[in-house]
Automatic annotation (TrEMBL):
It comes from the Bacteria. Keywords: Signal, TPR repeat. The keyword Signal applies. TPR repeats lie at residues 79-112. One of its GO terms (molecular function) is peptidoglycan binding. Residues 361-439 form the SPOR domain. Transmembrane segments: none annotated. This is SPOR domain-containing protein. It comes from Sphingomonas alpina. The lineage of its organism: Bacteria, Pseudomonadati, Pseudomonadota, Alphaproteobacteria, Sphingomonadales. Pfam families: SPOR, TPR_19. Residues 1-24 form the signal peptide.
Length: 451
């Protein structure tokens, strides 16, 4: 899962050397020494933040940590500085330091759901599953159910996670990421066949068995940090905690000291799952080796939701089992193209512009556009899709009701194409901001609203 750092401007009271500087001016508005000192400190903090952000963007997380620590030193009460520091620690694999920093952010901003969720994740990574569940319970109102449900599963309570995510999936507007998070929670609860059925709602048939085997490996961590590290795509590092001098409200001049950390080899709670057991439950070949499967792909994502169902990335860090979709990365809203102005001359083709593919050949392949709560919602989605992609014009949509452990959905697709034509159409649609994938026919029938 990609994490999002929050960078905001502004500073509160600055504590330097145990002295609190306040904004003050002398007679006639002339700045005093205290004001000038505060301005210098603010500028220094801003420089450190800018440098940290730049390093973070380039994936140089150790450098980001160093500069974010300096920024926090200049402005210990600025929540955005501490959020930047927490995110940098997290991406550097320093879970103990990240946990303390996220706790500090939450103390400064009690309504910060992203900090609360990531605090729970770092607690899970340290093996403090009871503490993580308490954090999730205490902040249930500010953490989206789709994110909270998956975190509960990782904290060793997949049964409760399934309950939370089933409710989220049945909420109007739920998306593919939420369903996939529910599917993962079902797998962690040992309900492999239910997980497989739900995966198939949003994933191409050829990818279903592959994902099940990846999840089988994911369900058997060897240390407490394995699953969280896989979801975030980070490598755990030995970490003694953030410098004591950076503790919230800590007076300046305090010597740096270790806060201690939980050994990364602590074993996480999991359900034993052998390759044969998983293969049997999910109707896969028993000879398939779980050990041969690479680290789980990042399908889980604690991030923003999208209006239409997405195809899931190839990694477990972005998995969402129930109706929900990643304080993950914010997704830009789908915007209908602006109306073109009338022209008298023939417009010249724009280099690199996506052109609607010509569909001529017929075949057995379909472009799946998503799974929705009902045929009515799917019809509305089809209307948006045709406005975005000219290639859908004149095509008849297909629809099919699907039943799963999460409830009933209506799958929307368009097809009867040759494979190359289906691939070209899906590629064109994606280039214009849509989401889709190509699959073979699976009993698709004309949509219920098509006469």
């Amino acid at each position: 899962m990609k994490t999002r750092a929050l960078f905001t401007a502004g500073m509160s009271a600055l504590v330097l050397g145990g002295t609190v500087f306040v904004c003050a001016t002398g007679p006639g508005g002339i700045a005093t020494a205290s004001t000038r000192a505060e301005t210098d400190v603010e500028k220094a903090a801003a420089r450190e933040v800018a440098t940290a952000r730049k390093a973070f963007g380039k994936g140089k997380y150790d450098q980001a940590v160093a500069h974010a620590e300096a920024a926090v030193g200049f402005g210990p009460q600025v929540a955005s500085y501490r959020m930047l520091l927490a995110q940098s620690y997290l991406r550097a694999g320093r879970f103990s330091s990240a946990r303390q920093s996220f706790a500090d952010v939450l103390a400064l901003e009690p309504s910060n759901g992203g900090a609360a969720l990531q605090l729970a994740l770092t607690e899970i990574a340290e093996g403090n599953w009871d503490g993580a569940r308490r954090t999730l319970d205490a902040n249930a109102s500010i953490i989206p159910a789709s994110d909270r449900g998956l975190a509960i599963a990782l904290a060793g309570d997949p049964g409760t996670a399934v309950e939370v995510l089933v409710a989220a999936v049945r909420t109007p507007g739920s998306d593919a990421k939420t369903r996939q998070n529910l599917a993962l929670a079902l797998a962690l609860a040992g309900r492999w066949q239910d997980a497989k059925t739900l995966i198939a709602v949003d994933v191409a048939p050829a990818e279903v068995d592959k994902r099940i085997m990846e999840w089988a490996s994911f369900a058997r961590p060897t240390s407490a940090s394995d699953q969280v590290a896989a979801l975030l795509g980070v490598t755990p590092a030995q970490d003694s905690g953030q410098p004591v001098a950076l503790a919230l409200n800590m007076p300046r001049g305090t010597a740096l000291a270790s806060t201690g950390s939980v050994p990364v080899e602590t074993v996480a709670p999991s359900q034993p799952a052998t390759a044969v057991a998983v293969a049997t439950e999910a109707s896969l070949p028993a000879e398939t080796s779980v050990a041969a499967v690479a680290a789980p792909a990042s399908y889980v994502s604690f991030g923003p939701r999208q209006e239409m169902v997405q195809s899931i990335p190839a990694r477990v860090a972005r998995m969402k089992p129930e109706p929900r979709d990643t304080p993950g990365a914010a997704v830009s809203p789908i915007v209908a193209p602006k109306a073109a102005r009338l022209v008298t001359a023939k417009p010249k083709p724009v280099a690199g512009a996506a052109v609607a593919p010509r569909i001529t050949a017929k075949g057995n392949f379909f472009v799946q556009l998503g799974a929705f709560e009902s045929a009515a919602v799917a019809k509305d989605a089809w209307g948006r899709a045709t406005r975005r992609e000219a290639g859908f014009g004149g095509q008849k949509p297909s629809g099919m009701p699907i039943k799963s452990a999460a409830g009933s959905f209506y799958r929307l697709s368009v097809g009867g194409f040759a494979r190359n034509d289906a691939n070209a159409l899906c590629k064109s649609y994606k280039a214009k901001g849509g989401t889709c994938f190509v699959r073979a026919s699976a009993g698709d029938q004309p949509a219920s609203w098509v006469k």
